[in-house]
Amino acid sequence: MPRPTTRAPDAGWTDPDCPVARTLDLVGDRWSLLVVRDAMDGARSFTEFQRRTGIARNILTDRLRKLTANGLLAQRTAPSGRRREYVLTDAGRDLFPVVVTLRQWGERHAFAPGEAHSVLVDRHGTPVPEIAPVSADGTSLGTETTRVRKVR
């Protein structure tokens, strides 16, 4: 699969050796992830993204341009043939587990106990189970059981 961006490591990456930092350079602002979230939920047009997020037109224009330039969204002709619409690329769809994990963290830490919030459900209406990283042998992973192997 092609890389989502052509930015070279010396072209302004926050931390050129860290995948987390590079990802945040691409989608780390509030509005970009909300646009991706809404694309995952079926938004396709500029108007839909604006209605769902409440984002200012100039900011939305900028985020759609950046997400398209970085290979997370693509533009195509809408089925009506009259407009262009935005669709997730493979790289954009690959953010699904990230968005689910952020959602689940928010459910645990950003709401008061018993406070109402939206729920992500599968096609049968069943809430999506917790995402939790595990090792190759099925052992739960966390900060105390992993480390980063630096390249330098």
How would you describe what is shown here?
The chain is mainly α and 152 residues long. It is built from 6 helices and 2 strands; from the N terminus they run H-H-H-H-E-E-H-H. The chain has a two-stranded antiparallel sheet. Strand 1 (73-77) and strand 2 (84-88) form a beta hairpin.
Topology:
Elements: H1 19-27, H2 30-40, H3 46-53, H4 57-69, E1 73-77, E2 84-88, H5 90-93, H6 96-109
Antiparallel strand pairs: 1-2
Offer a few descriptive terms.
two-stranded antiparallel ribbon; 6 helices; single chain; about 150 residues; mainly alpha
Spell the H/E element sequence: HHHHEEHH
Termini separation (Å)?
26 Å
- The overall strand count is 2
The general outline is: globular
Helix coverage percent of residues?
25-40%
In round numbers, the mean pLDDT is: 91
Strand content: 5-15%
Give the C-alpha Rg.
18 Å
* Structural class by secondary-structure content: mainly alpha
* Unreliably modeled segments: none
Largest sheet: 2 strands, antiparallel
- The total of helices stands at 6
Strand order of the largest sheet: 1-2
